[in-house]
């Protein structure tokens, strides 16, 4: 039965908000807002009375984007290994391996994992006046259980959604089936201590997958795995069982702090279990966008991607530059970067930009606790001149340990959304800016759009992320949508 068949026309917006508040599992999604939310809060974000509306054109573009991003992942994967072999310039490998410890490099270079790609792709999409911009790609994203639980709840109010109300659950199960070639695989979702804030939603997801009958799933701590010579074993509601897929919900920069991680990867090397996302730090680097825009690699990218995919990615992936402190020869410049219409030859030329000219952000490329969420992101025109100079110099100084990137900043367009104001117990309208997080599950050659999380923050906020005053909701198709 479709969600629309459950419509409750008698409900007011306030009734719908109360229904969502009453029926969402409590205290499962603390990660979206952080520690500023009191323990007594039922939810850590603002509740909308309906899903966020997107136009058919926007949804169609997002459906196409999934395949484009899968092609991008395949290409950057190939580019890295070709650089390791020496068939493309060595600087690609060097950039992607900067700051990575030897154990990570050895792991990602193993032939056993060479073709492995993330089974889940989740970009951060900014809706701008000129179209969509993918500010980041996250191959170890949270939020799956969050979107899935909200989708099921809004379905009970009669709202059909992008990906359908159970798209996350079905997509996750189908991804696991494709990765393992098993009709009903057992998935062990390993959540590390560092990722503890997400445990609640992953417990919800595992239960929902079990209830679907499409796969079996458990969410565990890494120390709960039992290693044998033949398999990884985990306790399930039906007793001890062999794990078919380990879903890695821990960051590679934290891998040495994860108990039994070496046994997990040992089992994967010997084909006793599948691990996804693969342990490939180079697939989690924001500087991959810079490699995509490098003129010296343009012919390679055009050869690997179809003309349509290449053209669409050029519009969606923002201009990005690696903050590389190496000096340039006098005749060279930093490709595509200008000040006053003139090519930039030294990063110091950016110091004197006025606030209105600083349409950039600086962020860690990856493999760092600072690369998660918005922790390390600096919006250039929010800074004083001295702060701006310090951010550039700091990014350059960290090059050998944690490379940073300079990325063109795209301002999100204004949107409006209703939300429940807990202080007044009324429905209010907020002018805000939106980020969309579509969840694509990879099944064979397809990237299936299985759900979208919209995050709308007040219009005066510069960065869009989960926070106590953000409205967060799944998305639906509407002719009058954004």
Structure class:
alpha+beta
Q: Rough shape?
A: globular
The main sheet comes to: 7 strands, mixed
Enumerate how many helices there are, as a single number: 12
Mean pLDDT: 94
Task: List low-pLDDT spans.
Answer: 31-41
β-strand number:
20
Percent helix among the residues? 25-40%
Our Rg estimate from Cα atoms comes to 23 Å
| Terminal-residue CA separation | 27 Å
Instruction: Name the beta content range.
Output: 15-25%
Tell me what the structure shows.
With 482 residues, the protein is α+β, with helices and mostly antiparallel strands. It has a domain at 319-408. It is built from twelve helices and 20 strands. It has helices at 13-23, 56-85, 90-97, 102-108, 144-155, 167-180, 199-212, 261-269, 287-293, 298-304, 307-316, 385-397; strands at residues 52-54, 120-128, 131-138, 186-191, 216-220, 226-227, 232-236, 239-242, 245-249, 274-276, 320-322, 334-339, 342-344, 360-364, 378-379, 404-408, 414-421, 426-443, 446-458, 471-477. Strands 1, 2, 3, 17, 18, 19 and 20 form a seven-stranded mixed β-sheet that branches. Strands 5-4-9-10 form a four-stranded parallel β-sheet, with helices on both faces. The chain has a four-stranded antiparallel β-sheet with strand order 11-16-14-15. The two termini are 27 Å apart.
Q: Summarize this, please?
A:
This protein has 482 residues and is α+β, with helices and mostly antiparallel strands. The chain has helices at residues 13-23, 56-85, 90-97, 102-108, 144-155, 167-180, 199-212, 261-269, 287-293, 298-304, 307-316, 385-397; strands at residues 52-54, 120-128, 131-138, 186-191, 216-220, 226-227, 232-236, 239-242, 245-249, 274-276, 320-322, 334-339, 342-344, 360-364, 378-379, 404-408, 414-421, 426-443, 446-458, 471-477. It has a domain at 319-408.
């Amino acid at each position: 039965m479709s969600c629309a068949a459950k419509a409750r026309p008698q409900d007011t917006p306030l009734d719908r908000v109360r229904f969502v508040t009453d029926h969402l599992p409590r205290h499962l999604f603390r990660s979206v807002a952080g520690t500023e939310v009191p323990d007594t809060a039922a939810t850590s974000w603002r509740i909308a009375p309906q899903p966020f509306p997107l136009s058919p054109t926007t949804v169609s573009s997002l459906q196409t984007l999934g395949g484009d991003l899968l092609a991008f992942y395949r290409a950057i994967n190939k580019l890295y290994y070709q650089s390791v072999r020496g068939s493309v310039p060595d600087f690609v490998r060097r950039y992607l391996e900067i700051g990575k410890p030897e154990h990570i490099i050895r792991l990602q270079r193993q032939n056993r994992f060479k073709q492995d790609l993330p089974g889940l792709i989740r970009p951060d999409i900014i809706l701008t006046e000129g179209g969509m911009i993918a500010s980041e790609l996250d191959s170890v994203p949270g939020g799956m259980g969050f979107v899935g639980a909200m989708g099921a709840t809004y379905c009970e109010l009669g709202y059909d959604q992008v990906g359908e109300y159970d798209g996350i659950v079905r997509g996750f199960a189908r991804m696991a089936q494709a990765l393992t070639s098993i009709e009903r695989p057992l998935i062990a979702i390993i959540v590390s201590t560092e990722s503890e804030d997400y445990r609640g939603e992953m417990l919800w997801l595992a239960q929902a997958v079990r209830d679907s009958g499409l796969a079996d799933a458990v969410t565990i701590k890494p120390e709960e795995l039992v290693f044998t010579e033949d398999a990884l074993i985990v306790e399930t509601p039906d007793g001890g069982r062999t794990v078919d897929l380990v879903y890695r919900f821990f960051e590679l920069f934290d891998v040495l702090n994860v108990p039994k991680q070496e046994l997990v990867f040992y089992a994967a090397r010997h084909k006793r279990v599948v691990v996804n996302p693969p342990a490939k730090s180079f697939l989690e680097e924001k500087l991959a966008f810079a490699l995509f825009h490098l003129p010296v690699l343009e012919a390679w990218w055009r050869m690997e991607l179809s003309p349509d995919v290449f053209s669409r990615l050029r519009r969606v992936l923002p201009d990005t530059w690696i903050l590389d402190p190496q000096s340039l020869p006098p005749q060279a410049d930093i490709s595509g970067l200008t000040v006053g219409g003139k090519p930039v030859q030294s990063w110091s030329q950016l110091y004197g930009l006025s606030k209105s000219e600083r349409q950039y952000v600086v962020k860690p490329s990856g493999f760092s606790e600072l690369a998660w969420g918005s922790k390390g992101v600096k919006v250039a025109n929010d800074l004083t001149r001295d702060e701006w100079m310090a951010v550039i110099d700091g990014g350059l100084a960290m090059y050998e340990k944690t490379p940073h990137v300079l990325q063109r900043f795209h301002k999100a367009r204004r949107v409006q959304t209703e939300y429940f104001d807990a202080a007044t117990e009324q429905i209010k309208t907020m002018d805000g800016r939106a980020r969309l997080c579509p969840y694509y599950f990879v099944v064979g050659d397809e990237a299936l759009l299985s759900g979208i999380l919209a995050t709308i923050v007040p219009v005066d906020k510069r960065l869009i992320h989960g926070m106590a005053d953000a409205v967060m909701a799944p998305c639906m198709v509407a002719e009058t949508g954004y």
